[in-house]
Amino acid sequence: MDAEFTLTNLLLVSLLAFAVPFVLAFFPRVRVASAVLELVAGIVFGPELLDWIEIDAPVEIMSSIGVAFLLFLAGMELDLRVLRGPALRRGAAAFMISLLLAIGILLVFKEFGLVETPLLIAIALSATSVGIVVPVLRDSGLLHSPAGLFTIAGSSMAEFGTIVLLGLFFARDGSSPRVEAVLLVVFGVLAVLLLRGLVWFSGREATQAIFRRLDDTSSQVRVRLAIVVLLAAAVVASAFGFEAILGTFLAGAIFAVVIRGWHDLETFRKKIDAVGFGFFVPVFFVVSGMRLDLQALLGWLEIGTVLVLLLVLLVVRALPVLLYRRYLTDREALASGLLQATNLSFVVVAVTVGEGIGAITYSGGTALIAAGLLSAVIFPPLAHALLRKEGG
Asked: Which residue of 61, 196, 255, 289 could cross-link 43, Cys pair, CB 3.0 to 4.6 Å?
């Protein structure tokens, strides 16, 4: 074995990922997503502060798999059977308004020399962290209420739209948007063919019998199939010049359709969540924290930039919930706006992509992630308080 190869840094990152839930458990009244503390842990123990952990090859690889799993699991949460009717239509319209607002505001910022890549930042600020939104709605007992339905619809449409736009406009091969659009259509056709093939394969009685026989053995064949689909989609997306995240998200959405008829579906979901959220996804967030450039936040101008980005995030995601007022109370609409303005996971992903292709500087990425971090700390507790009063 190469003398330079070591798993020490990966061990330390794993220890941080293990410790975060315990820290949260000691403070049950503090409603903070684990991703927030994972980022903070990466900042504290990474190169910027204590410098106890380095990003070496094993850590880098596991982090890359982590972002792939994060988007795959996000795609699996997209359920169009639930998102239909007024909720789906108004959620999609709310996302379009958010995107147009963000683009308009960021173009003005560019004119004053405040940003260099307005489209990337606008796309990043138009998303919502569905993984943070759902627990707040569930804890408030309003997950299946009109408030929950409209919030999830708007959040899901934003997540889907921003991932597609990020993959379309910020491909690694630098092709023009027109070429990327053609490639995206071809990629979509392949995705449909993959869906039909997987539905046929997994729906066969012989296949189902094998699944049932091997499910509770060390083979874990359904989990293996999910990982094969995830990696295959990432490889194909990269081959077409897109970011792998576009492939993994669509793979998750496709796989969610494939598994609808599977037996003991809840057990399978727990298994695949355990693989992703048990290890790979936390590693991605810890490593993302280790990459942050804290020097970029030390001046008053830099702090002001973070606060302005946070305000823009709130405006572009909360303002469109006016479309929901016909169906929600004022308190529910306000809470929905706060939840839809909660945006951490996708901001981190967008910054990772942007830095990888040179579309955003490390200082700009740090400011964007800091704004997302604040949104995840501030907005969900406020929304929970509003919804709790509404439910009471």
From this structure: 289
